[in-house]
Every structure is written in C-alpha cells, then in structure tokens.
Amino acid sequence: MTKEVKHITGYDRVMIYQFDKMYNGRVVAEQKAEALEPYLDLHYPSTDIPKQARALFLENTIRTISDVNETPYFLMPHIHSTNNKLLDVSKCMSRGSSPIHLEYLINMGVGASLTISIIENGKLWGLIACHHITAKLLSYRTRSMIEFMGQILSGHLSLYRA
Q1: Angle at 142 between CA 141 and CA 148, to 5 degrees
Q2: HSE (side-chain half, CA atoms, 13 Å) at 97
Q3: Residue 12 — very low, low, confident or very high, per pLDDT cuts 50/70/90?
Q4: Tell me: the pLDDT tens digits for 87-114?
Q5: End-to-end distance of the chain based on CA atoms, in angstroms?
C-alpha cells in the first residue's frame, strides 16, 4: 500500500503507522526517497498523537497540510449568524493545525504532510502518514483517491478480523 500511495501522491515518505492497545505507535511499512533516513520499525509514545487528535481522525479520515510555513487564515465571523454557536470546522480537511504539530513537522524537516485514517471496526487502527520535504499541494482528485484507498484498507482489516 505504501508503494502505491507514494506513486500516486509523489510524497517523499509514506508510512503505515499502527497503534497498539494503549495507542503507542509503530511504523510497520514505509516507502521513502533514497536520501531519507528510514523510520521503519520506529516506536512512538501515545502522547505523539493526543487523544483529541485521534478522535478527529475517526471523524475526518483525511488530513492535509500543504505548507507547514503557511500563515493561517481565520474564518470571520467565527460565530454562526443564525444560532450564535461557534463554527465547527472539525470535518474540514484544510482546517488549521496545532502550532505544536507544525513545529514537530518543521523539526523533522517536513514541508507538507498528508494523513489518512485506518479504521478497524470503528476503532482507529493506525494511519497512513505521508511527508514531503517541501510544500506540496495535492489535487482534489488525488486526495479523494487516497482517501478511498484508506477506506479499502480499513474495510479489509474489519473483514479480516471480524
């Protein structure tokens, strides 16, 4: 799967990141540009992807950051005009990212990222995590294709382990 995603998207690194029961993660598959250091079989603590971020990955199965250095823009007004509630952008693919997450990516030398949820029987099994060294903008068609691939992988896991 990582080979196909890398081919379709052109990202420099594509990983499959699997969670254990405590949501610690491990890179279980990887395709990367030759010059990059491998991450295959590296382990990460559950705090790397906090509980609220994992909950968002269940709601919104694809997340893209085209440029980690881009200045964020804010919706105005941020209160809905008819019901006076805050606008809910949790399902928006291009919503703003946590400054801590952006700093994490920058420290890793990542210029753009794409993350696709892998869900098994309603539970977050893992992620397809894509990194690119420079900024990268994917077309809607490409994002939709990759999201569909994530759904297929999720469906196979759910069927296989049912």
Answers
A1: 90
A2: 24
A3: very high
A4: 766 666 566 677 777 788 888 899 999 9
A5: 21
